[in-house]
Every structure is written in C-alpha cells, then in structure tokens.
Amino acid sequence: MLLLFSGFISRILVSDFLLNRVIENTRQSLDIIIQSIDSVLNDVETGALRVASDPVVQGILIKEPEKELTEGLDQYFLVKSILDKILYIRNYIDSISVYRLDGSPVGSGYINYGKASEKKRLSAVFVRMVMEAQGRNLWTDPGSLMYTLEQPVASGPVMYRTVRQANLGRVIGIVEVNMNRNIFSRLYSHLDYGKTGRFIVVNRKGILIFPESYDYSLYSEFFRNRYLDLVTDQNNPKGRIATFGKEQFVVISSHLERLGWLIIGMIPMNELQVYSKNLSLSIYAIGLFCILLEILFAIWISRSISHPIRSLSDCMLEAAQGDMLIRMPSNRRDEIGILAQSFNEMLERISFLMEQVYNEQKKERELELIALQSQINPHFLYNSLESICALSKLNRNEDAYTLGKALAMFYRGVLSRGKPFVTIKEEIDTLIHYFTIQETRYRGKFSYRICVGKELYDKRIVKLTLQPLVENAIYHGLKNVRRVGSIWILGKVESQDRIVLTVVDNGIGMSREQIEEVLSNGKRGDIGPGYGLRNVDQRIKLSFGDAYGLKIESRPGYYTKVHVLIPCISQE
C-alpha cells in the first residue's frame, strides 16, 4: 500500500517536473535560436551597410543613369563585383540589389542579369516605406525570388536600407538584401517536440512562415482559436496548456522583435504523460526490485544469524544426548563466534570433568569390589569353621578332615593371587571344592550337577560369583525341605556379547517381595538373608555396568532360578 501511495505521489511529482523541465528546455532553446537569428541579422545589416557606404556604389548612384546599353552593363557588372565579394563569405544571403530612388536597378550580386533586366522597378510603395524608416533598416517577410542564377526559389526575409551620400548625407539609393530561407530551417529544425509536436513561425498578421511545406490544415484549429492572444500572454512567460481539437498541448512562444515574428513550440501533453507513465512504471519497478532486494537481504541476514544459532542448538541437543566430542565451528568474529567458542570450551571442560569423575568412580568401584570380596571371605569362613566345629563335636573326624582339606583348596582358589577376575573354569573348580565342603556337612541332603560347556571356560567372570548363589540355595532353599534337594549349574552364550550362568534349586522358592528385597541395595553392613545374592549383584554391576547382574525367577514351594548375566569377554 505504501508503495502504491509512493508511486502515485512520485507520478504527480514526476509529471510536474517533466512539464516544467520541458517548458524550461524549450524556452532556453527558443532563446538560443533567437540569439542565433539576431546574430545572422546583425551580420546581414553589416553587409548592407558596407554596400551602402562603398564609394563606387555611391559614385554610380550620384551620376545620372547611362543611356547607352554598353555603359549601363559596365556599371552593372562593376556593382555586381563589389556585391559578390560581400556575398562570398555570407552563404545565408541569396542576393543583394542596389536601386536608385526611382526604383530602377543599378546592380545585383548572385543573380542573372537577363532576368534582372526583366524585373520591374522597385515599387513606389517600398521606396516610400524605406524613406519613412528614416535611416532604420526595414525588414519584410519572405517572398519569392524570381531571378536567381538557378531556378526561382522561395526567399527568406528581405531587408531594405537607404544609401546616403557620404559628404552630404542625402538619400541617393536603396539596398535590398534577400536572405536564404534555409538558414532559418537549419537553426530551428533540430528542435525535438515529440512525434506529434509542432513548431511554427508566424508573422504579425498570423501568416505561417515556417514550416512552409506543412499542410496548413494541420494548424487551422490553432489559428481559429486566436492563438496570438494565447501565446503572447505576458503573464504566462513559462507557457500554458491549451486544447486544440481533442489534444492538449503545452504552448511556449518567444518574440523575434526585429522581424516581428512569433516562434511557437507546441508539445503534446499525451507524450509527456507517456513519459511520466513510463517513468512511474520504472519507479514502481525499481521500488519492487528494491523491496525484493530488501527481502532477500533480510532473509540472508536472518539466515546468517539464525543458521549459526540453529547449529549451536543442534550441537547442544547432541551434547545433551551424550555426545561430548561434537564441536561448534568458531571461526566467526561476532557474538555467535564468541558463544560457539565458549560452548566448545564448556564441552571440553565437561569432558575433562566426566573423565575425571569416571576415573574416580572406577577407582571407587575397584575399592568397593575389594571391600565386598573382603566381606564375602570372612562370611564364608565363619560358616565353614562353624561346620568343622560341629563335625568335631559329633566325632566325625574324617568328615572334619575332608571339610578342612576342601576348605584349604577352596581358599586357594578364592585368593587367586589377589586377582578380582578369574575364568569360568577357575570359578567352577572353586565351586566344586565348595560342594565338597557342603556335602560333608549335609550328607545325603542334596545333589548337584554342573552343565557348562567347555567353550565358556576361558571367559571372564568376577571371582566368587557362583559360590554365594549356591550357598544361598542350600541355606535358604534346600535346608528346610524334607526331600532330597537338587542344584543345577547351567551355562550358555545368549548372544555374541552376553553369557548367562544359571543356578537352579528345587527348594522352598522365593516370593516377589523377597526377590525385590534381595536385589535392592540394602543397608551398608547388612549381612542378613539375601546378603550373598545382593553382594554378587553389586559386584557384577560395578565391574561390567548396570546392564549386567542377577535376575531371579522363582515359584514358591517349587524352585528358584538365579541367572547371572555377564559380558562375553575372554580372560587375558
């Protein structure tokens, strides 16, 4: 809307500007033409003055006319030679003639003598008009020159002046100068008034002087509308708008006082309006182009600002999802670059702190693992020694010996030079010694079976993983049942990266609440029921991560399955 309003105002301003500019340019052109014509007229008058003041011309005019034809021709050619010299350097003069006061010709330059001899005398009317001018130059409108060297042509303005005797000052003759009409055409024919514009020259009586070749009907409407009153209005020196027929014209005029001519320029308004319309359309087009450029520039600015921000936001989202290696390009030197550099420094600091925390947690897990294992060893040792004491009281010395021997072999495997990890084969060997200890204590109370493929023997496992599970199966699953219990140790590769070892017993089973309690963190130092299972679960998670550990299935009164999930890693 603003563009339309601006274009409308611009069109009005442009129209006024064009109108004033055309009027001013036309006025200046007319002034220059008048100055040029005045310059030519001045030179013509100077040439006529030279003829009038020439001693030879004056001497012939003072004498009486020669009656003999031969002497008359001599005088004629003598005057002609003088006039031809003046005409030679003035191509805008067709001819110069000298007359006596009775109107008879004395001589002419650039004309045919035979034709000149047939020319009538200068009329008494012209003689009287020249005499009444009292020494001033008299200019008349163009006529037809019939005695040129070539064919008769239309003459331009004609100037007359008197010839005064040098010593007495009395009038002795008249000089006539016929100007070339084409000189004026050359002066103002270059003016441009558009395709339908008009340029005319008229005299005081409204007679069309130029262009004489135009159809007079083209100007009939102009002459019928009293153009002289219109164009000579001194209150409108800049011209005015007039309607001729169905067209409007801007009319500008200027007076050529010496000749009494009126030079008139008529510029069609419709052409000015076309220029104005085209210029307005150009303004609209430029305005739309500028708006388009502004939109494109705004989009470019917006993208140059928003794109780095979106990139930074994406980097932040990826960093929030755990990718600490991502970095934001920071080659910009503006606020976005500073923000990106700060963000990168923050990520580097976070990565450093996370690595530091990870290392500290790793050390902490190692210490916790050692602490948990130290809790297992005294716990089992206490139970085993208690069993040896019980066998001794029952005088079962052989069983006590077997139990002690198995206990020694068991602790040899448990200690394993202080290593926190052993192979599954070593873990099973330690478990067999444990079964020996428990069979000595609970003879005929349970049986066991180990079904673990040899392809798992070299895989890595946390030391003392299976023993606490078997211990829990015996003391909390089979001890309180009347039938002979059974324990199965199973093993399989569940996937390429995970192994599942399962301890199954057909004891009293566990309720859902008991399972949840066993797998809960519990309290520090708590060694009650389920302590062994919870201890193993915590050690596995500390060693391999939360994706691994224990998973318990049970049906109260029937069975309990404890699955051990560990990664499939070979022992180095």
Tell me, what is the CATH class of the largest domain?
A: Alpha Beta
Shape: rod-shaped
CATH topology-level fold name of the largest domain: Heat Shock Protein 90
End-to-end distance, in Å? 81 Å
Cα-based radius of gyration, to the nearest Å: 66 Å
Topology overview:
Blueprint: H1 2-52, H2 55-62, H3 69-88, E1 93-99, E2 105-109, H4 113-118, H5 124-132, E3 138-140, E4 144-145, E5 153-164, E6 171-180, H6 182-188, E7 198-202, E8 208-210, H7 220-224, H8 227-231, E9 240-244, E10 247-256, E11 261-268, H9 269-320, H10 335-393, H11 397-415, E12 421-423, H12 424-441, E13 446-451, E14 460-462, H13 466-478, E15 485-495, E16 498-505, H14 512-519, H15 531-544, E17 549-555, E18 559-567
Helix pairs in contact: 1-9, 9-10, 10-11, 10-15, 11-12
Short description:
This protein has 15 helices and 18 strands. The chain is of the alpha+beta class and 572 residues long.
Defining traits:
6-stranded antiparallel beta sheet; alpha+beta; 3 domains; 572 residues; Beta-Lactamase; 5-stranded antiparallel beta sheet; 18 strands; rod-shaped; 51% helix; Heat Shock Protein 90
Q: What this model shows, in words?
A:
There is one protein chain. The protein folds into three domains: 53-178, PAS domain (Beta-Lactamase, 2-Layer Sandwich), CATH 3.30.450; 186-272, Beta-Lactamase (2-Layer Sandwich), CATH 3.30.450; 358-567, Heat Shock Protein 90, CATH 3.30.565.10. The chain is built from 15 helices and 18 strands. Residues 112-118 and 146-150 have low confidence and may be disordered. The two termini are 81 Å apart. Helix 10 runs antiparallel to helix 11, helix 10 runs antiparallel to helix 15 (531-544) and helix 11 packs antiparallel against helix 12 (424-441). The strands form four sheets. Strands 1, 2, 3, 4, 5 and 6 form a six-stranded antiparallel beta sheet that branches. It is an alpha+beta fold and 572 residues long.
